[in-house]
Specification:
191 residues; mainly beta; 6-stranded antiparallel beta sheet; 3-stranded antiparallel beta sheet; binds 5-phospho-D-arabinohydroxamic acid; binds zinc ion
C-alpha cells in the first residue's frame, strides 16, 4: 500500500463497483500474483510449479484515495480469485498491524473466510455478502476464498496502524485452510 500525503481529505463520496471490485474515485491498486506469496503455502514445490507455469493472479486490492496516514480511515476492496495451491485455498498474505488497532471487513460478494491468529488462538469467521468480520487489535489476519467464484470484501482500517507481513511469515496463522473431500477444513499449523 502506498502513502499519498498527510493533508486531510475533504468529505468524499466513494462508489463501489462490487462486480468489478473497484472504487470510484480510485486510489492505489495492487495485484498479488503467486510469485508474491513466497513462503506462505505449505507445499513449496506446488507453489514453485505454479509460479513457473503461469504465475496466476491470486488477489487484487483496490483502494479509495483516502491515504494511509494517522487519523484517516483508508478502505479498500480485496478480490481473492478461486483456486488452490496443492489443496491450500487461495488466500491473502496476511499481516499484523504494528500499532495494534481494530479493523472491519464487510463481505461484498462470493464466500470466504477471515482467519485470525493472536499467537496462541486461531479464529475463523465465515464471510458472506452483508456479514461484518471484526478484527480486534493485535490479531494477525488473512482472508481465504472458500468457493468457486471471486470472493470480495471491503476493509476499513486505521491509517496509522501500519502493515507487518514478516510476523505472519515467521509465526504462521495457527491453521491452514484446505479443500478436501468436497469440504473446507482448518488444519493445525504449529510452528
Ligand atoms: C486489507 C488487506 C488486503 C490484502 O485491506 O491489506 O485484504 O491482504 P494483505 O495485506 O495481507 O496482502 C487489510 O487488512 N488492511 O489492513
Ligand atoms: Zn489489516
Amino acid at each position: 500500500m502506498s502513502h499519498f500525503s498527510a493533508t486531510p481529505l475533504d468529505p468524499l463520496l466513494v462508489t463501489m463497483d462490487i462486480a468489478a471490485g473497484r472504487m470510484s474515485p480510485p486510489g492505489p491498486t495492487m495485484v498479488r500474483r503467486m510469485a508474491d506469496l513466497e513462503g506462505l503455502f505449505a507445499d513449496q514445490a506446488a507453489w514453485a510449479r505454479s509460479v513457473e507455469s503461469d504465475n496466476p493472479v491470486v488477489y487484487e486490492v483496490s483502494s479509495s484515495p483516502v491515504p494511509e496516514v494517522p487519523r484517516e480511515l483508508p478502505h479498500s476492496i480485496t478480490t481473492i480469485f478461486p483456486g488452490a495451491c496443492s489443496n491450500e485455498l487461495y488466500m491473502t498474505k496476511g499481516h499484523q498491524h504494528p500499532d495494534p488497532q481494530g479493523e472491519i471487513y464487510l463481505g461484498l460478494s462470493g464466500v470466504g473466510g477471515l482467519l485470525m491468529y493472536d499467537g496462541t488462538r486461531t479464529e475463523w469467521l465465515e464471510m458472506r455478502p452483508g456479514t461484518i468480520g471484526y478484527i480486534p487489535p493485535g490479531w494477525a489476519h488473512r482472508s481465504v476464498n472458500t468457493h468457486d467464484e471471486p470472493y470480495r470484501f471491503l476493509a476499513v482500517y486505521p491509517g496509522g496502524a501500519g502493515h507487518d507481513y514478516g510476523w505472519v511469515l515467521k509465526h504462521g496463522m495457527g491453521s491452514r485452510v484446505v479443500a478436501r473431500d468436497g469440504g473446507v477444513h482448518l488444519l493445525p499449523d504449529p510452528r
